[in-house]
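Supplementary notes for students who missed Thursday's class. We covered one full example, reproduced here. Read the sequence, then the structure, then the short commentary at the end.
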Amino acid sequence: MSDQEKYTPPKVWTWDAENGGAWASLNRPISGATHDKELPVGEHPFQLYSLGTPNGVKVTVLFEELLEAGYSDAEYDAWLIRIGDGDQFGSGFVEANPNSKIPAMWDRSGDTPVRVFESVAIMMHLAEKFDAFQGPASARAELLSWLMWQMGSAPFLGGGFGHFYAYAPYPMEYPINRYAMETKRQMDVLDKHLEKNEWMVGGEYTIADMAIWPWYGRTVMGDAYDAGEFLSVHEYKHLLAWAERIAARPGADRGRMVNKTSGDPSEQLWERHSAEDFATKTQDKIG
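Structure (token representation):
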């Protein structure tokens, strides 16, 4: 089928579950649980249910950075949610996040468990709880602006460019060109900002950096969608230098491994329940 072939939308859209390419099973036009399955609960104050996608990595990087900075009360259990298997449609997960998207978290540090869903909502909840990685108070508006920028922009990168370049049923020129253009524009926005700033906000490493890095840092380092050459990522030297600074941080390095199920087995920690797990339970050791 040619991507130039004319498509005429029907008068009423119907769901064709077979027409979705890779990851088609992740999406459906209705919400709610498909099966009963309670979520496991560990011993730590925070229970995270996630997968090592960019949105999941945002939160595990923050947890590991908090622990690296000495916030021992930030200990957490990270449980693996296999979205390809439909774990996100289990009744327990839907209770944690009615939108059935990772990550979701229960904060059990108080008398009453509190659910938090959406990656940046979890990050803001934790940053405010520990009064950490928020930058100077004078830069609060800037912090919120970049966080909202990331949430609004990443779907063009992942759901747009990534989907049509790497996962669609067949190559389609128009959407690939459309989203490649937008992805490069977004990287140019970051590159120009980082030409004049070491970090995203207020001269400090904050949750804005942690939120943006798993998406755009991974892309500019050539690790996303095998598209580094296609997107000419070498052009964004300031963005690349920033991405490499974060990659060198011990907390970020650990965080990117949590709930990861692909790549080098030594970098896959499917579940994280203690700091020792990084040394003893990666897939090269237990796989």
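Commentary. The chain has a mean pLDDT of 94. The chain has ten helices and four strands. If anything here is unclear, bring it to office hours.
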